[in-house]
Amino acid sequence: MSTIAVSRRATAAAVLRAEARLFLREPGSLFWVLLFPALLLAILGAIPSFREVDDELDGLRVVDLYVPVTVLLGLIVAGFQAMPPIVTGYRERGILRRMSTTPVPPSAVLGAQMVLHGTAALVSALLALTVGRLAYDVSLPSQPLGYGLALLLAVAAALALGSVVTALTRTSRIATAVGSAVLFPMMFCVGVWMPIQTMPDVLARIVETTPFGAAAQALGEAAAGDWPGWYHLGVLATWTVAATAVATRWFRWE
C-alpha cells in the first residue's frame, strides 16, 4: 500500500512539473494573471486625486481601496479566463480520455491545473500588495491571519467557479467565451470600476452576496485590522461548496 501511495505521489509530481513547464510557456496567461493586476494598481495610483485622503472614505485614499480589488483580480482571471480553456482543450482533443488507459489518472491533470493557477493567483496578490506598499505607501494588512483566510477562500471560490465553466462547456473556444462573459460581471462585483465602499447602499448589499464582492469586503476589513465578517466568509464558503458540487456533478472526462 505504501508503495502504491509513493507511486501516486511521484506521478502527481511528474504531471505537475510537466504542466508547470507548459504554463510558463504561455506569456498571455502569465501577463494577465501575474502582472496585469499590479500594473493596473500602479496606473491607478499614479492619478494624483487617488492618492489624496478622502474623509468620505473614513480617511482612506482611493488607491487604498483598489489594493484588495487588484489582489482579487488576478485570481478572477486565473479561475475564469486562464484555467477553463486549458482543461477543456485537453478533453476536446481526447487527451483526458487517453490518459484514463495509462497509469496517469486524468484527475492528476485537473489537480495540477488547479495548483498552478491557485499559486499564480497568490503570487499575483503578493505582487499587488508589494506595489501598493512600495509605490504608494499602502499599509500592509493589520489582521494578516484574517486576510490570509479570506484570500484562500477567494482562491478556492475562483477555482471552483472556474471548474463549473470547465464542466459545462464542450470546447475550449466556448470555455473562453463563457469565461469572458462571466469575467466582466465579476470584475464589477469586485470593484474594478467602482470600489464597493463608493457604491450606493442597495447595490453594495447586492454585490456583497457575490463571491468576489464578499471577498473584497473581507479583505478590506482584515486590512483595516478587523477580523473579516463571518457573513462575508460564509458567502465565500457557500459559493465554493455549491460550485464544487455542480462541477463534480457535471464534469466529464470525455
UniProtKB/TrEMBL annotation:
Keywords from the UniProt entry:
Antibiotic resistance, Cell membrane, Membrane, Transmembrane, Transmembrane helix, Transport
Q: Which domain of life is it from?
A: Bacteria
Query: Where is this chain's protein located in or outside the cell?
Result: Cell membrane; Membrane
Q: Identify its membrane topology class.
A: Multi-pass membrane protein
Provide an example Pfam family for this protein.
ABC2_membrane
Primary localization: membrane
Q: Where are the transmembrane segments?
A: 30-50, 65-87, 108-129, 149-168, 175-196, 230-251
ABC transmembrane type-2 domain segment(s): 28-254
Hey, which family's this protein in?
Answer: Belongs to the ABC-2 integral membrane protein family.
Name this protein carries in UniProt: Transport permease protein
Organism encoding this protein: Streptomyces millisiae
